[in-house]
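Good morning,

Attaching, inline, the backbone tokens for the sequence recovery test we're adding to the shared suite. The designed sequence is right after.
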């Protein structure tokens, strides 16, 4: 069974930085697609950054381009979300997720089957 655990959320001032960590277990390969998503109050869950295939092709939401990056350490089964220049509108619960199927994956929540419990990020002065 695939399991994911997010950590690293918290309260940060606008303009600050935060690194989220997603530790995975149970995946059959190290080159699986993986995504970071977020859900703000009263809004739908949205894709933030997703590694969509084994070649490492990466999708970035327009709102985070130039500010957020994704990286992975396969030896540690861990994926990171580095968030810089944070804005109040980045406030949300952040989730990492893995799809059951590895082909034709985008960065839409419905593409993904296994989810972590989420970690809260609050950007406020």
């Amino acid at each position: 069974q695939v399991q994911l655990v997010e950590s690293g959320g918290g309260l940060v001032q606008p303009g600050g930085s935060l690194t989220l960590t997603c530790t995975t277990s149970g995946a059959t390969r190290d080159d699986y697609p993986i995504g970071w998503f977020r859900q703000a109050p009263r809004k739908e869950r949205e894709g933030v950054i997703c590694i969509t295939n084994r070649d490492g092709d990466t999708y970035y939401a327009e709102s985070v381009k130039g500010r957020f990056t994704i990286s992975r350490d396969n030896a540690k089964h861990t994926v990171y979300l580095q968030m810089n220049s944070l804005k109040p509108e980045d406030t949300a619960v952040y989730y990492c997720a893995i799809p059951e199927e590895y082909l034709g994956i985008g960065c839409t929540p419905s593409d993904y089957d296994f989810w972590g419990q989420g970690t809260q990020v609050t950007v406020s002065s």
